[in-house]
Specification:
Blueprint lengths: L1 H29 L9 H11 L1
């Protein structure tokens, strides 16, 4: 039961992150930012570079 619940939570978080990413893209697009150059892997890479 615990593993099933954990999987459900992970899936929900994944969907939420996707929705937040889409919302941020829309906000940036409305602000005139070229969102075509923004990709998740680049965002992850920039987090690594900051360290």
């Amino acid at each position: 039961m615990y593993h099933f619940l954990r999987f459900e939570i992970m899936e929900a978080v994944s969907l939420l992150v996707s929705q937040i990413e889409n919302l941020l893209r829309q906000i940036l697009k409305n602000a005139g930012v070229n969102t075509n150059v923004i990709r998740s892997d680049k965002i992850e890479q920039s987090k690594i570079d900051v360290k």
